[in-house]
Amino acid sequence: MKSDRLIIAGGGPAGLAAAIYACRARIPTLMVEKLSPGGQVLITDRVDNYPGFPQGIAGHELIDRMIEQAGRFGLEQQNGEIAAIIPPESGDGNVMVRLAGGEELEAGDVIIATGASHNKLGVPGEDELTGFGVSYCATCDGPFFSGMHVAVVGGGDTAVQEAIFLTKFASKVSVIHRRDELRAIKLLQEEAFANPNIEFIWDTVVKSVNGDKKVESLSLLNKKTGTESTLEVEGVFIFVGIHPNTEWLNGTVDMNQRGFIRTDGRMKTSANGVWAAGDCREKELLQIVTAVADGATAAHSIELSRHS
Amino acid sequence: MADDKVIHVTDADFDSTVLKSELPILVDFWAAWCGPCRAIAPMIDELAAEYDGKLVVAKMNVDENPATPGKYGIRAIPTLILFNNGNVVDQITGAVGKAMIESALSKVL
């Protein structure tokens, strides 16, 4: 018999929004999250583009509110990491969810909302010096660099927003970008260009992170001129895009080349009973506001599919 | 919550509590401003309860206690350092899953 349970894999905004909609539809819902809920929003100092918060809101505060809201409608949570899902061969069967510890759960439907993680640069010294000056979280680690010179690598929204944030602590922030213009939205660009403590190093890539037990310098290569140089900094913050947390699916559902899950407009994947929402899904705009929209749509589509 | 199993250490009592601990001790360096620190907090509490009697689990607020993080070169949080007999056995940076922390613990337990 088909279970009426819904399992949501991942507790970021997409998973939490799906939970709110599913619980309100009286679908018994279990959220499985390997850390505590929140996802990437937890490392965001300030969310300024989520409607309803005219002065912006701290990432963790927005998440706390979503958790409280989902809890109010009866969401159950389990701490754990999903190792695999096995979809049924026909639409009548259940999806088997296997946790990393070996425990197996069954559900009529599963929403994959496992989000995305930051990319690494993949250069020598990066792994060795992570935690010793190499960072992927400005809100966490910015305060360790008071009065120091740090670098930011990247040219998107996150890189520019975090560069501006870091000027609260660092005496100077050098933004290293491989192109000669930023991808970040105009408002952030204007703010960064007007900030006297931010300098831009264009057309340049990082070849290595150097230092003995702490970051001391970066080796840089200007891609246009071929000139190599050394930039002395005490920290480097890396914001060079994200990749979806979908490796664990091992091809269970259809994905694009970069590993983002393909769905239809109802958030349904290629596998029976399996849906996807948020940053792990193939789409144009990866934002909190689109993640919650995906989550709501997925939960609603599941409800409709059960009554058709 | 099993929070009562977790002890809180400071710069002042770090040597006597951590370095002279008879049991292996896992120290979670955290701060209120750090989202990922919050993300791993429930897991740290769980570890403290599960390994009670075999392992001490401690937290140090890096905002209030800057000397010790400086001594260990910490420039990112959360950082977990596992000490045994006053020596650093392992150091983990970032919000990682329980399995990764337990694999570090297996070196001393």
Oligomeric state: heterodimer
Helix-residue proportion of chain A: 10-25%
Share of residues in helices of chain B: 25-40%
**Terminal residue distance of chain B:** 24 Å
CATH superfamily of the largest domain in chain A: FAD/NAD(P)-binding domain
CATH topology of chain B: Glutaredoxin
Concise account of the structure shown:
With 308 residues, chain A is an alpha/beta fold. Chain A has six helices and 18 strands.
Describe it for me?
The complex is a heterodimer of chains A (308) and B (109). With 308 residues, chain A is of the alpha/beta class. Chain A folds into two domains: 6-118 and 242-307, FAD/NAD(P)-binding domain (3-Layer(bba) Sandwich), CATH 3.50.50; 134-238, FAD/NAD(P)-binding domain (3-Layer(bba) Sandwich), CATH 3.50.50.60. Chain A has six helices and 18 strands. Chain A is elongated. Chain B has a single domain (3-105), classed as Glutaredoxin (3-Layer(aba) Sandwich). Helices cover 32% and strands 25% of the residues of chain B. The chains are: A alpha/beta (308), B alpha/beta (109). At the A-B interface, β9 and α3 of A face α2 of B.
Topology:
The complex is a heterodimer of chains A (about 300) and B (about 110).
Chain A: E1 6-9, H1 13-24, E2 29-33, H2 59-72, E3 76-79, E4 82-86, E5 95-99, E6 104-107, E7 109-112, E8 116-118, E9 134-135, H3 138-141, E10 149-153, H4 157-166, E11 172-176, H5 186-194, E12 198-201, E13 204-210, E14 217-222, E15 228-232, E16 235-238, E17 242-244, E18 274-276, H6 288-307
Parallel strand pairs in A: 1-2, 1-7, 2-3, 7-18, 9-16, 10-11, 10-16, 11-12
Antiparallel strand pairs in A: 4-5, 5-6, 8-17, 13-14, 14-15
Helix pairs in contact in A: 1-2, 1-6, 4-5
Chain B: E1 7-8, H1 14-19, E2 25-30, H2 35-50, E3 56-61, H3 67-71, E4 79-84, E5 87-93, H4 98-105
Parallel strand pairs in B: 1-3, 2-3
Antiparallel strand pairs in B: 2-4, 4-5
